[in-house]
Amino acid sequence: MLGLLLSLISVGGMPSVLPELQRYVVDVKSWVTPEEFIQIFAVGQAAPGPNMLISSLVGWKVGGLGGALLALAGMCGPAGV
């Protein structure tokens, strides 16, 4: 649900909503620790492709392959439509 909302308000791409994503997955839901989020961010920046991969890495950490696909669809779907 958060991915859908962030996708709709992400004028400027993923960097514009990264602080809110970090707040939600680290502080609100405690899905990852701050250190894990920094590592996910680093891998997302180092990997070739769009910054949107960060959301799929968070999804992978939380729910495996299904979580990664769902997170990526949630971030890319609304903007693609």
List keywords for this structure.
globular, mainly alpha, 81 residues, 0% strand
Explain what this protein looks like in three dimensions.
This protein has 81 residues and is mainly α. It has four helices and no strands. The chain has helices spanning 2-9, 14-28, 34-46, 53-80. Helix 1 packs antiparallel against helix 2 (14-28), helix 1 (2-9) crosses helix 4 and helix 3 packs across helix 4. The longest helix has 28 residues, at 53-80. It is globular. The two termini are 16 Å apart. The model has no long low-confidence stretch (mean pLDDT 85).
Distance between the termini: 16 Å
Helix share bin: over 70%
Low-confidence stretches: none
Strand content: under 5%
Give a topology summary.
Blueprint: H1 2-9, H2 14-28, H3 34-46, H4 53-80
What is the structure about, briefly put?
It contains 4 helices and no strands. It is mainly α and 81 residues long. The longest helix has 28 residues, at 53-80.
